[in-house]
Amino acid sequence: QGLIGASLIWDKVLLKHPGTKNLFSYVFWLGALSVFGVLLVPFGYHSPAVAVIVIAFFTGMLQLVGVFFYYSALKRGEASETLAIMGGFSPVATALIALALLTHHMTGGQLVGFALMSGGGFIMFLSEKLPLKKLLPPILLAAGLLGLVNVLEKIVYNQTNFVSGYVWFTLGTFTGAMILLVPSTWRKQIFEESQEDEPRNRFWYFVNRFMAGVGSFLIYYAISLTHPAIVDAISGVRYGVIFIGALLLTKLKPLWLKEDFSGWQLISKTAGVCLVGAGLALVGLSR
Q: What pTM value is reported for the model?
């Protein structure tokens, strides 16, 4: 979650540059790079049942759609406020979908810890005066879609090992990226925007994608080990990193990123981060 938080701060900076302003171009390269998931095949891959392959492949494609709305929200608002809203809504969406689709549910310390971590996200959300009409539609779509992705991934891992499920998941994401090339208008946007960008920006984009890829890999491995809503709620750590990163960049590099950190926002966001930390500790102790 920490790696993805740092990556998202840099994403916000990159989304201001030519070559990465266009969401189709940005999401295409993110999905295309997921093909490297097949490198895990020698490390324990066993062909799962056809039904499991279909679910994992579809989930990978669905993940790219959720990511599109995720980055759409990031582009529209401030990094710390936009992603903090996701920190409140996304775990709740995951938990509600899990109630319908999973047989194992959170209990005791896990449930209380989950509530604290989700509450921390909502406190950060309520601390801002937000353009809700602009931000809520992509945020709710992203939260719902990525919550469904988390639960479907858990269903896959319950039926096969992590490597086998993850390989088909990344193949689905890669296929989703290739589908973006089918409409000629999208294809034109993807390659024109990529060619316009400076080589230095492209280099840092791919470095950033590698860092985010490592973070995502670790998160999906965590989902294979425990309830997906708990993993999603721990995304509060991600928003804590984003909060600190956005604050530092605003103070030290305002030309890269400048956000509002007035008194009330600073206090409430700090309180939200503390709640996330308390919930995380409680979940750990409950094991």
A: 0.76
Q: Which DSSP string corresponds to 80-119? A: HHHHHHHHHHHHHHHHHHHHHH-S----HHHHHHHHHHHH
Q: How far apart are CA 218 and CA 71, in angstroms?
A: 20
Q: Using CA atoms, how far apart are residues 142 and 197, in angstroms rounded to an integer?
A: 27
Read off the amino acid at residue 66.
G
> Is 21:13 a contact under the CB 8 Å cutoff?
no
Question: Is residue 131 predicted with pLDDT exceeding 70?
Answer: no
State the pLDDT at residue 92. Answer: 79
CB-based contacts of 168, cutoff 8 Å, min separation 6: 48, 52, 53, 56, 57, 60, 156
Query: b/e string for 2-24 if b means 16 or more Cβ within 10 A?
Result: ebbbbbbbbbbbbbebebbebbb
In order of 71, 85, 121, 272, the CA distances from 239 in angstroms are 15, 9, 8, 9
Give yes or no for a contact between 50 and 193, defined as CB atoms under 8 angstroms apart.
Answer: no
pLDDT at 262: 66
Distance CA 262, CA 128 (A): 10
Q: How far apart are CA 54 and CA 156, in angstroms?
A: 10
Top pLDDT among 90 and 146 is at: 146
pLDDT confidence tier of residue 176, bands split at 50, 70 and 90: very high
